[in-house]
Design a protein that fits this description.
CATH topology: Rossmann fold
Structural class: alpha/beta
Number of strands: 7
Strand order of the largest sheet: 3-2-1-4-5-6-7
Number of domains: 1
Radius of gyration: 17 Å
Oligomer: single chain
CATH class: Alpha Beta
Amino acid sequence: MRFGTIVLVGASRGIGAAVAAHLAPETRRLIAVSRTPAPAGEWLRADMADDAGIDAVVAGVGDGPLDALLYLGGVWEQGAFTSAYRFEDSPPAETCFVIDVNLVAPILLVQRLLPALGRADGARVVLMGSVTGRDNAASVEVANSASKFGLRGAAQALALSLGPLGIGVSTINPANVATPEVLRDIAEGRTAEQKAIPLADIVRAVDYVLASSPAAVPSEIDIVQRQPVWERP
């Protein structure tokens, strides 16, 4: 086994499910956190939108060491990243929900799990950002972009705060990833034709962060898309 205990938030689908499937055979205890059943790991039902969900994760970890917290889940506005999205139609509750899940919850979860992370040797925190959180790269989805910009700032501050404790903090910032939802939007014409990033590339990025030495923990990894190749007529 490469790892003792890992908490993976967002394990039921998309990026989280792919990473969970990869790590489960290599981890003594993979706590797979999600609202719906996770296909790999020890499923822990929890909603990161409320305090009870965070309490459930902390209780699930218990008093032992936590080798890594992978916050790979995320939410976005209705119709986000498609032609259906309209900022003026997004209700206030939706804005608060997106920012709570994508930004506030990971900060609070790191804080609550800090004792467990501190009990491990060289623990890691990996947060799933987005290229839309990079300078001059925001998308029109206001709440999602705000949450991803904020997450990068939080990660940088956490790295300064937790580095002296031997805990590494990294953010992975991908463009569109080839999850079933993204591939369906592309196929049905709701987004521009594009080459989405294979899930396997995100899995490799997470693996790289977890395998890096304490002296060389990457602060951020940006993963951009390869655009459709122009074909000679």
